[in-house]
């Protein structure tokens, strides 16, 4: 077990290295640099050149890469050209928002998906099952940005149930109850959208797992001993079917990260996904590279986490 | 003579249903899938014919007098900020989005299938190298890298866009095909063929691939739906097709302006509904195909 974890963690290092090289080279190829946008007829071209030199943009790429890598391992990704603050500080602020959004989404996801999956599996082929299967089918087919827009239009603009932009009302001071509530309130609509989009996987997994379990020997044994069906479900089937759901947690994180670009952009939610899109627009290399590295790292971590949980939960698929 | 005819009859009766028959039976059992298939074919052909009839230059001409004209007599689905008819853009956009998705699906399909089959059949170092590459692609944040890629190409065209997407999309197909090819290459018929001295190339493409065809069709169908989603999503974010080329995603992206989202629903809602219905249709067809590929799930 430990051997696997160590080995998997070690594999992550070359993967991250290749990713860093790739993204670094790509960022260098981006047309223009952060200073191009500042050139006006009045600016002195020598001054711009000076700034470039100072920022190290005129060094050969491998020197720049080595510099960047050395500092990156120490957690220093340089300074954002747009925001004039350290990249780590900037991303840190946004990461907190994305983290809370993902957490609330994950909680909502399980609140919605687990009961639906259980009902669909237990009452297989009934009307309820058919409705749930249809629901998960539609959700699977609809692209993230389409559902987000429709929800924003309906619940934000038409029904006025939720705020349509930002992460908090400016009238509240940090730390007060109003501030926290405002944060949660702003998070709710994007989180619900997120959660609904992710339900398909959990519902379908639970449903087929429960249907499978019904014909297993341990269920028949329990039934023949006279244990009532509801108890067989709560004691035996659910326990066996719910645990692997935990293993999906890692993949859920990965999925949420990918969707955050769309969701945060559409809902005007200041998280990492939105930061990425605005950094691309302003050619803020240091922020772009740091964000891609961070997302890459989190994706790897998510799949590692899933494998570990899976091997604990289900000894049959223990990885060697 | 009569005897021979008799024999033929018996053979016909006991022969297992071939691929096409199974698929046909599956669609006959599933009315929704049948309906989706027919509707999809009609819509796609309709979009392509209609797009031919539209004068794209006239359509894209800005006419400020018609700015945000609501649906009515002049414009069946209203007009956008530049007074350009939404209906026309919807048709051209759908044509572009569908064409691009088809090309990406074909490119990534062919590449993924060839790589997967070769890895699964030969194994060894070829497999090892490709699996490391595939692992790498699957664990990277590809959406972000595609966006970075699109921004570094100075004057990118539709072809460029298709190629960039293809680079990032082939790995899952290759991985699936590899795992199926791996188990298939252990079958007796492959071993028998090997002992007869058939070349690896022939075994892979003439013997293994036909046996995987049903899985490949399912994979390609669902990939197609996914590719429509990726192209329109990127165009929505502004990193897809060049702005002068209408796409379903570009139409929806007008909704990034809160005013349009709130009050000019005719600009973005039709394209959203079009995507949703098309995705549902493709997925229904894909499900029916999947059932015909897997004997355990069949309805008919």
Automatic annotation (TrEMBL), chain A:
The protein's name: ABC transporter permease
Family affiliation: Belongs to the binding-protein-dependent transport system permease family.
Domain (ABC transmembrane type-1): residue spans on this chain: 95-306
Domain of life (superkingdom): Bacteria
CDD domains linked to this entry: TM_PBP2 (cd06261)
Topological relation to the membrane, as annotated: Multi-pass membrane protein
Transmembrane segments: 12-30, 99-120, 132-157, 184-206, 242-267, 287-313
Keyword Transport in record: yes
Compartments it resides in: Cell membrane
GO annotation (BP), single: transmembrane transport
Keywords of this entry: Cell membrane, Membrane, Transmembrane, Transmembrane helix, Transport
Gene Ontology CC: one annotated term: plasma membrane
InterPro entries: BPD_transp_1_N, MetI-like, MetI-like_sf
Taxonomy of the source species: Bacteria, Bacillati, Bacillota, Bacilli, Bacillales
Pfam families: BPD_transp_1, BPD_transp_1_N
From TrEMBL, chain B:
Superkingdom field: Bacteria
Compartment(s) where it occurs, according to its Swiss-Prot or TrEMBL record: Cell membrane
Membrane topology category: Multi-pass membrane protein
SUPFAM superfamilies on file: MetI-like
GO biological process, alphabetically ordered: transmembrane transport
Cross-referenced InterPro entries: BP-dependent_transpt_permease, MetI-like, MetI-like_sf, OppC_N
Entry GO terms, CC: plasma membrane
Keywords (A to Z) from UniProt: Cell membrane, Membrane, Transmembrane, Transmembrane helix, Transport
Residue ranges of the TM segments: 32-51, 98-122, 129-152, 158-177, 265-286
Pfam family, one: BPD_transp_1
Stretches assigned to the ABC transmembrane type-1 domain: 94-286
Family that this chain belongs to: Belongs to the binding-protein-dependent transport system permease family.
Name of the protein described by the UniProt record: ABC transporter permease
